[in-house]
Every structure is written in structure tokens, then in C-alpha cells.
Design goal:
heterodimer, A: alpha+beta, Alpha-Beta Plaits, two-stranded antiparallel sheet, two-stranded antiparallel ribbon, 16% helix, 25% strand, globular, B: alpha/beta, FAD/NAD(P)-binding domain, D-Amino Acid Oxidase, Chain A, domain 2, 3 domains, 8-stranded mixed sheet, 11 helices, 16 strands
């Protein structure tokens, strides 16, 4: 599977833990608990989660 | 909390509590698990329901109702206002109390309930046979003959069981909502605002909650939120339309407006509610659908336990009954969604004009949808199928 550049980062103070990102993740790479979000290693940086976040709490970290 | 139950339900929203209630009523031992610290909070919902549908699944308690609704008012992109009186009564609920008491009702039927219980995975042998849960910070294994996944839009129970539940960007509405004071709109109507500047690939809603309070929120298609997220659209709308607004709550959330999920049962496993994509793809409404499905799923789970047969074949009775009740209709609604999705602001204005030319008593749901699809009359048959 092709992996995009960088990695997905979530910004805790912006996140509402609503799970919209989880619903669109094609690789089951996001885990949601009460007040925490984990991006797993199998993430391919397809950015769908970044696009759908209602609060722009996810971003691609290029460094 | 015991180490073994006949049925474990994951998620204590309306779908989870209703499944737990009916499974327990059928004689099964049931555990209902909620990951958050309190059932009912946070409320990621516009809270609107139809009385007729809700009555089929629960005895409605007056204190669940914040506002009785007698119709809807559509606002076109240019600001035309189309009022529609509804034959059916609607309610805007207080979901905090509603969800809490649905869990209480499940408990009255004998279900065990636990909060701060985040399910981490499924136990599997040849089939699903329980869950692993983080309960108050401790890892626990709980055996079960049936697991019901009612874990919402972020459902992972289905994925763990091998069901593909993720949706396309086209099929998700990304939403933001405030509960706010000082919204100067008629308070016994639900209001819908349309237009690509307001909510592209979706709509904005104002659902009154009594005493000047209202849920004001919007959903935009995942395809349109790349450059501007839902919360920005909402902020802009509030500042132009309701500058005096006082915001008491802000929430974000997602709604699947997707084709029906093909697989909602496996050996020892059922999915209900948002986890099974049982939302109406046109309206995004899902409370009553979730509860109708959960009532069926809970009963079938209870019967399967009695018969000592939790095979997929046995549990398939649930999707069959659900399809006949509402499931098939949702497939038709998805067809309508695809059409409505492509409507331009100009199309919306024309629809508003058609409706404004109609006397009030002619403005029924069927006629509203018929006016919307004048460009594709073949859809009228579908409209008649879902509304009559």
C-alpha cells in the first residue's frame, strides 16, 4: 500500500473525540477512547480523517 | 460485573440501551457497556424525532420532550421562506435525560450496566465469544454468546468482526452544533437552511428546545470540508444570521448518509444503530431507526440464546425483519440523496418557488420531494414507495 508523506497528528485541545475520523479511516488506524485519540502505525496518511474533521483537529506533520 | 453474560452490548446510546432492554426482557443475561463516564453525555445530536415512530419503541415520557413541533420551515439560499405544516407531531428531545432513562429501562428489565467501560477488542474462538474491556482502568475479559455492537459512528466492533464499516467522504456529513439562546425564529417549527455557501452537500438546522433555546447545527459533505471545516461554516452563519447568539454548548460529530451496510450480523454478533449505518441518508435522522432495529435485534438475540443457536444463519432473522420494517426504505432514500446532493442553489430556488405556489394544505412531504425531483421524474415512484 502506498504511504503518503509525513504523519497524521491530532491536536488534543481542538479535538472533541467525536469519531468522525474513525468512520472514514479505510485502514482502521484510529482508535478513540474517552478523551484520547491514537493514530496507529498502519496509517497510510491518506488524509481522509484530516478532510472530515469538523474542528480541523487533525493535520499532517511533514517533519 | 460478572465474567460471563449471554449478551454483551457495546455502547449505551438509544440503540444499545434498547437492544439491552429487549434482550433482557427475552430472558437473556445482559451487560450494557458505556465508554464514557456518564450515559447521555455528550449529546452529539439535533434531538429531533417523530412521535409516531418513537411510540412504536418506547412509552414516551413527557419530561423527555423539550419542544413540540408542528411543522418545518425551509429557507432557500436567497432567503425564501417555505412553511410546511406537518400532519405528524414531532418532538425535540432532551437526549441527556432520554438516553439516561433508556439505560434505566434496560436495567429495570434486568440488564447490568457499566460506565467508564471502554471495549478494546473482541474475544474470538471459532466465532465471537466475548469482549476485552478497559473498566475503570483495569483490563477485563468478559465471555458472551452474543455481542451487540451499538458503538456509534466510530464503531469498531464491526471492524473487529471483519465487517467493512468505513464510509466514503461522499457518504459522511461532518457536523458542528451549538445549543444557544436568542435565536429569533418561530419556536414550534424545525428550520432548515440550504445553499452551497451555508452548508455544501448538506443543510443547516435550527431545532428549538423551548424557552428561547435551540440546537443550531450543520452538516456538510466530507467532500466539501477539505478547505473549510464544519465549525467555520457554523461560525459564519451565526455571525451573519444571529449576531446576538449566546452559546451554551458546542459539539462536533459525524453522520453517515451511506448505502445500507450489507452485513450487519456474523456468528454471535449483531450491529445496530449508527454502527450499522441505519441513519436516513436524506435527513441524517437516526434515533427512531436505531431503536426500531435495536428492538428487533434484542429480541432475536434473546430468542437465539434460548434456542442455544447463535449462528449467523439464526441471527439473519434480524436483518430480514429490519429490511421489512425500515431497511429497504433507507436504500431508496439513498437514491434520493444522490439526486438531492447534486441540486444547485438555482434548483433549490426553483423548488422553493414551486412550493410557494402551492396552497399550504398541498405542501406534504410527498409533494415537497416531488417538487425537488422535477428534473428526474423517474424518482417519483421511489418517493411514493417511501412515503406511502
Amino acid at each position: 500500500m502506498e504511504k503518503g508523506k509525513g504523519m497524521i497528528r491530532y491536536i488534543r485541545k481542538k479535538c472533541d473525540f467525536c469519531g468522525t475520523c474513525v468512520a472514514v479511516c479505510p485502514h482502521d488506524a484510529i482508535e478513540l477512547a474517552e478523551n484520547d485519540l491514537l493514530i496507529l502505525e498502519r496509517c497510510t496518511v491518506c488524509k481522509k480523517c484530516v478532510y472530515v474533521c469538523p474542528l480541523q483537529a487533525l493535520e499532517v506533520d511533514d517533519e | 460485573m460478572n465474567n460471563r453474560y449471554d449478551v454483551v452490548v457495546v455502547g449505551a446510546g438509544p440503540a444499545g440501551s434498547t437492544s439491552a432492554r429487549f434482550a433482557a426482557q427475552s430472558g437473556a443475561s445482559v451487560l450494557l457497556l458505556e465508554k464514557d463516564r456518564e450515559i447521555g453525555i455528550p449529546v452529539r445530536c439535533a434531538e429531533g424525532v417523530g412521535e409516531k415512530g418513537l411510540k412504536t419503541v418506547v412509552d414516551i415520557r413527557p419530561h423527555w420532550i423539550k419542544q413540540k413541533i408542528v411543522g418545518v420551515i425551509f429557507h432557500s439560499p436567497s432567503g425564501k421562506v417555505v412553511k410546511v405544516q406537518s400532519k405528524e407531531i414531532g418532538y425535540v428531545l432532551d437526549r441527556k435525560i432520554f438516553d439516561y432513562e433508556l439505560a434505566q429501562i434496560a436495567a429495570e428489565q434486568g440488564a447490568h450496566v457499566a460506565t467508564k467501560a471502554n471495549v478494546l477488542g473482541l474475544l474470538k474462538k471459532e466465532r465471537v465469544c466475548g469482549v476485552v474491556v478497559d473498566f475503570l482502568g483495569e483490563r477485563k475479559e468478559i465471555a458472551a454468546d452474543i455481542v451487540i455492537g451499538a458503538d456509534g459512528i466510530e464503531s469498531r466492533v464491526g471492524r473487529w468482526a471483519g465487517i467493512k464499516t468505513h464510509v466514503a467522504l461522499y457518504d459522511i456529513e461532518t457536523c458542528a452544533q451549538v445549543t444557544a439562546m436568542n435565536i429569533p425564529l418561530e419556536s414550534d417549527y424545525c428550520h432548515f437552511f440550504f445553499g452551497k455557501e451555508i452548508a455544501p452537500g448538506g443543510y443547516l438546522w435550527v431545532f428549538p428546545k423551548g424557552n428561547g433555546l435551540a440546537n443550531v447545527g450543520l452538516g456538510i459533505s466530507g467532500e466539501f470540508s477539505k478547505t473549510k471545516p464544519a465549525i467555520r461554516y457554523l461560525e459564519e452563519f451565526l455571525s451573519t444570521h444571529f449576531p446576538a447568539v449566546a452559546v451554551l454548548t458546542t459539539v462536533a460529530g459525524g453522520v453517515t448518509c451511506a448505502p445500507p451496510l450489507k452485513t450487519i450480523v456474523e456468528d454471535g454478533l449483531l450491529l445496530v444503530g449508527d454502527a450499522a449505518h441505519q441513519t436516513n441518508p436524506v435527513s441524517g435522522g437516526g434515533i427512531v431507526n436505531a431503536m426500531v432495529a435495536a428492538k428487533i435485534a434484542g429480541r432475536i438475540a434473546g430468542q437465539a440464546i434460548k434456542e442455544n443457536n447463535v449462528s449467523k444463519k439464526r441471527l439473519m432473522e434480524y436483518p430480514r425483519l429490519w429490511d421489512d420494517a425500515e431497511g429497504k426504505k433507507l436504500g431508496i432514500f439513498y437514491k434520493l440523496k444522490k439526486f438531492i446532493y447534486d441540486m444547485t442553489d438555482n434548483d433549490l430556488e426553483k423548488t422553493a418557488d414551486l412550493l410557494l405556489g402551492m396552497p399550504m394544505e398541498k405542501r406534504t412531504l410527498v409533494n415537497i420531494f416531488k417538487s425537488a425531483v422535477v428534473k428526474q421524474p423517474s424518482l417519483i415512484i421511489d418517493i411514493l414507495k417511501v412515503f406511502t
